[in-house]
Write a structure and sequence with these properties.
The protein is an alpha/beta fold and 150 residues long. It contains 7 helices and 7 strands. The strands form 2 sheets. It has a 5-stranded parallel β-sheet with strand order 4-3-2-5-6, with helices on both faces. A two-stranded antiparallel ribbon has the order 1-7.
């Protein structure tokens, strides 16, 4: 099964506390590209980015307060195309289980996800970013219709 990702992508921008400044710096550097797309962010990251980029950003809850789960829901509803998530691998997060669930659902639904600046740079410079793209979506029909035995 395929789903069309339109020219204007729906991009989520997320960062743990120790990575917020890095994400804001990266987003400012890529502002000309990012502002051509629909942006969504969690918590204070969204406010910081909106101020720095001077463009409206749909702001969700803070990650630990449900923002990560809101992003997961957007993925499951096919309302998100790309996640740029600067997470901190050296700091334990109180919502690690939510982060893991977000990463799992992104991989499950074949969503573009960049977890560091280098990968985010590659995504932003991809020729696929500014064109329509047919994303392969796994067919979970058999899984949804499986028989549960006791």
């Amino acid at each position: 099964m395929k789903t069309s990702i339109k020219e204007a992508k729906r991009i989520a921008l997320v960062a743990h506390d120790n990575k917020k400044a890095d994400l804001v710096d990266w987003a400012y550097y890529n502002r000309d590209i990012l502002t051509q797309h629909k942006l969504v962010a969690t918590g204070t990251t969204g406010t910081l980015l909106e101020e720095k980029l001077g463009t409206p950003i749909k702001k969700l809850l803070s990650g630990p307060l449900g923002g990560d789960q809101q992003l997961g829901a957007l993925i499951a509803e096919r309302k998100l195309d790309i996640i740029i998530f600067f997470w901190d691998p050296l700091e334990a997060q109180p919502h690690d289980s939510d982060v893991k669930a977000l990463l799992r659902v992104a991989v499950t639904w074949n969503i573009v996800i960049a977890c560091n600046r280098t990968t985010a740079d590659f995504v932003m410079t991809s020729t696929l970013l500014n064109d329509d793209y047919e994303r392969v979506v796994p067919d979970f029909t058999a899984y949804m219709n499986r028989l549960i035995t006791k």
